[in-house]
Amino acid sequence: xxxxxxxxxxxxxxxxxxxxxxxxxxxxxxxxxxxxxxxxxxxxxxxxxxxxxxxxxxxxxxxxxxxxxxxxxxxxxxxxxxxxxxxxxxxxxxxxxxxxxxxxxxxxxxxxxxxxxxxxxxxxxxxxxxxxxxxxxxxxxxxxxxxxxxxxxxxxxxxxxxxxxxxxxxxxxxxxxxxxxxxxxxxxxxxxxxxxxxxxxxxxxxxxxxxxxx
Length: 214
Known about the structure:
Largest sheet: 7 strands, mixed, barrel
Keywords: Hydrolase, Metal-binding, Tryptophan catabolism, Zinc
Enzyme class: hydrolase
CATH class: Alpha Beta
Shape: globular
EC number: 3.5.1.9
Number of domains: 1
Order of helices and strands: EEEEEEHEEHEHEEE
Helix content: 10-25%
Number of helices: 3
Structural class: mainly beta
Number of strands: 12
CATH architecture: 3-Layer(bba) Sandwich
Cofactor: Zn(2+)
Function: Catalyzes the hydrolysis of N-formyl-L-kynurenine to L-kynurenine, the second step in the kynurenine pathway of tryptophan degradation.
Strand content: 25-35%
């Protein structure tokens, strides 16, 4: 048997967004209902960086690739959840060294953000030196349970260190119910092509015999 963890943020008006900026709130409206038609339909207007999403390098690098350059194979496979809930304000290299990250690993950072549904504008983020450490280790990707992987760093060094090392960035995860350890991960961004980010559904599976899948 295996267990499934849905680590995606629910999308709704009033949800936590980056620094709680009102312009980043999703707007969902009904465009027809059963009072006027035989089918119910609605429309959503949403920032690509709202909720759980994948960033592409174009987000921070003028010559960076769009979502079309990130293959789905890189977002499916083994990963490791790291419990860094003891980190205050930001995650530094010192917080990460004990986990000994390995080349091609996909790491998901569980912080104090996952312990509340209202982490607001002062969320825990990955500091530049932590990102540089993970980039040097050659990790395939980094996910975090915050609306952004960094918060108030001039020049966005965390994003840039990871993008320049060809590491994928996933933001907006919810890891409160997920124990530290290894999992099989499926992150499926919607298949937009020419954008700098895409909303995604993210799932973790525990107890899988991964070798049996191939």
